[in-house]
Structures
1.
Amino acid sequence: MNIPANLKYTSSHEWVRTEADGTLSIGITDHAQTALGDLVYVELPAIGRKLAAAEACAVVESVKAASDIYAPVAGEVVAVNADMTDAPEQVNKDPYAAWFFRIKPADPAGAAKLLDARAYEATIGDA
Amino acid sequence: MLKQTPLNVIHRAAGARMVDFGGWDMPVNYGSQIDEHHAVRNDAGMFDVSHMRGVDLRGDARNGGVRDFLRYALANNVDKLKDPGKALYSCLLKPDGTVIDDLIVYFLREDFFRLVVNAGTADKDIAWFRQLLAERAPHLTLTPRTDLAMIAIQGPNARTKVWRALPGSEPVASALKPFTAAAMQTAWGEVFIARTGYTGEDGLEIMIPAPRVVDLWQALVAAGVRPAGLGARDTLRLEAGMNLYGQDMDETVSPLESGLGWTVDLASPRDFVGKAALLAHPPSRQLAGLVLVDKGGVLRAHQAVHTGKGDGTITSGTFSPTLNQSIALARLPADVAVGDTVRVVVRDRELAARVVKPPFARNGKACVSLTP
């Protein structure tokens, strides 16, 4: 199971990348996309929406199930990946390149408290 | 403790994602169920269906009796089977007209018919048949063929790839008309080859002694057939407008409310289990096809459907890779018409869907228009 060391993670299987400007890009992990199967539909939050930590803010649907995506930290949505809605299968092909949305975190240091790769790996037990 | 087919080790070695399917440990995909679906529509894919069960019904040479028994036991009429090898799709009904299972019956000889029943219902079906036989035809023998494994190879190139993989099979297998079967001797023992399937594509289903099924599977892989799992099997059969027992029909509904009226022969004078109940209860619901019109999700089983003529429920829903849109079967009021727009409750909103006549796709292509 692929878990890049340079990213942060949540126990709900989102990955988080801190960009140069301090915004956070968010996607779903290899574990999540494998469990979901081929994605066929993605719903992204509106730009400008203010999110609380752990708030459900996006939806992915695979052939077999729908799943919520949760904000890893509190913040405001500043960008969404418009490519995603026409080609959700890119998430399966390259889950760490397929970002869903970017947030400006309410607390600039908030991402530091998220799980690192090793801690995330422990949560999924890599079964 | 899940049951396993003889191909279990092969599936795991191929990286399959496994699921519990009716008590069986089965592959749901080998990586991408959508790619596997396209392989079947465009080339050749294969499914391990060894969890399904062949059941042989035999009489004695003097007094066949098998045909008589099946005339009574099955809702479709086995008198349609005149040529040896011919197959028939039928429901097995309870006296109250509800569905115990759907199955295929093959006429092989007057004293030998073979049935193929679903995995999750095999034990129930066999117990039901034994009970009926005890009452009506105790001289017949019923043999569940747990010694046989089965592979379904489907797609426009399926048959030619089977001939390549199964030496000596071409003369017999290439002569098979659709919905016909034949047995033949091979280096791997006697195999039973049927030109049937559950995908809407041409193809063959092969029953083979269980100890040899791994050899057959590997020969098919070498011949260019792509392993496909239950995920693709479901999107293919739904595109083809084929019912799934346990979802589209079960012991709470009649075949007439499940889109299976065409499989019930009510015209001939023969009596059969469930006939009186079907005649006494004309259907007030239908099984209709739906194509999602609004974007916003995927149609799925159990979603509520609101129509101008009353409410209904989706029985099977999925994303159709061939149409690139979500499709479903739904039990709706009988007077909802093809072309009507209905509203489906998907997660937290109502999405528009259009009523269509299945199948949605067959022989590699879409059959319904997506434009209203």
2.
Amino acid sequence: MSEIAIHVEGLGKRYRVGERERYYALRDVLTRAFLAPFRRSQRRPKDYLWALRDVSFDIRQGEVVGLIGRNGAGKTTLLKLLSRITRPTVGFAEVHGRVGSLIEVGTGFHPELTGRENVYLSGAILGMKKNDIQNRFDEIVAFAEVERFIDTPLKHFSTGMQMRLAFAVAAHLEPEIMLVDEVLAVGDLQFQKKCLGKMEDVSQSGRTIIFVSHQMNQIRRLCERAIWVDGGRRRLDGPAKEVVNDYEAASLRMERNEIEQMPGSVAFRRWLIEHTQSNRLDLDDIPGKVVVKFQAVVKTEIPKGILVVSLRSDENAILWSAMYPDLQMKPGPLELNVSFANLPLNPGVYFWEIRVHDGHQWFDHMQVPEFSVVAKTDTDVYGYLKGALNLDVSFDLLDQTEYKLERS
Amino acid sequence: MSVTAETPLLAKPPVFRITPPSRWWVLPFSELWDSRELLYFFVWRDIKIRYKQTAIGAAWAVLQPLLTMLIFSLFFGRLAHIPSEGMPYPIFYYSALLPWTYFAGALQGATNTIVDNQRVITKVYFPRLILPASSVLSGLVDFGISFVMFLVLLLYYGIRPTVAVLWLPAFLLMAVLTALGVGLWLSALNAIYRDVRYVLPFLVQFWMFASPVVYPSSLVPTKWRWLYGLNPMAGVIEGFRWSLTGRGGPRGPLLLASVGVVIGVLLSGVAYFQKMETTVVDVV
């Protein structure tokens, strides 16, 4: 059995409510200090929020562990504790080895510095030695595909180029333990695939990795084990496939009180492709016609509203959108079927979004989980020129002689 | 040649223990030493970006003290006839503005450094002490540039430095440590109370008049001089004047008091900063 890389015992982090969002003005502190004698006894436990509580686990060397859970479940807090960015309130953790944390791409990038200078700066901030950066510099630049611009100030880079460079630096860190937070969601699909490949290489090199992602396919593909964090506690821990399946099942059946808490007069709680009864569309047995079922609960009657369904790319660009005016809904369960004659998409990750106007205001419903389109044969056109659409096309080359005749 | 083969993992990797903040602070010397390269990179970044997209660039490092010196010489010297211990006014004022401009700039940089770098410190760990330290060090480049200007002034007025000039590095070190000590306090406070940002300009202005920048400290009555010396910048500025021109002479009690205060401020600053370091990420 390999040795322990991370040992976590009873770890907890408590924030004062609102503490993370605001900073204090001296006035507030003076007021509080002045009023303190009068209300010390009134300090209620609900002024505090446990972002993480009573979490214990062991991770062995070379394990690749996925950390899943909803927003605010405590995943990022856990990563921040393990990478020593913030300190725990109770409990402790022992980390055997140097930790590289990748909580944000482009940490420490400065727009006025050139690409080259930023590679050195960001590398140093992430914990690389100058010699390491020098040795791997060409590799980093080649990976980011920005050779031609490396001596231009970063502010002239496109966002995509900045992201690629940032990831490339981070991907060439070589600590014993790597903490990765959601950074694979960068760049275009092609680059994401490259990043994923790089992460696979890294995970096979014997490094210990903790990996946070909302894209369950990535967790399935990269991790052998997954830890599901819910409400600051460890809810499930085991083989990645099982934990992810349970997690997906649970996020589909939302609790009743959660529906009550959702804003708006109508709560869209799940969606699936009718043909496959899942959130995946396999293009190899594409049925031509695709029916997407959205299930909702109407909380209050909408006499006259508007409904808009949109399909977004993983970069949040709207790929398609349609409006349903004159919406009339009575309280109770509801099913909305959206039928497409065909859905010509390239393999990738997409999102459904539903916006409802209930007569007073708009409500957004970003649909979880994501919509993944897969295919055995992934038709790439030299990688770069890949779009979202996968349309049937035919080319006709006109004979040049005819062309010339037409012009004269 | 680039190394593509995976470097073998260390046989015995270092072990970090992550625990709640303790009530006692320990200065992590080995960690700070390991981060010296990062300190260098932060200093290098500060210097690189300081005069980016300015028309005259590093000339500002000379212009700022030079113009202030001209104004002081005109108003405090020619019009108000403040005594200058026998030095020409430009020399008298520029020799004080050298350390003072450095100090004021370094203090301002150090105070804002935690807030300015909040994106970085909430995303990655390194000893936070490096940030104020790098602002204080990067100011030395400007100091160097304006120092060259001072040598030109000395030449022009035909003043030849005496052996006292050997003391200059000691006084410079004192200015650096004062800026660092106070900067540590203010940067930690600024992370929690943004009021510090607004208080700082007044503090710097007030501090300048509490230091012998526009007047010689000989104007201060002798019996109060030890109290005056509690302001470490008083010792620094008197020291600069003396070591650069050989005139004026350092005053023992004043200097001793200054050194003592610098050490006190620095130690308490490091202690307070270390204490804040553990929680600053949660509130910044």
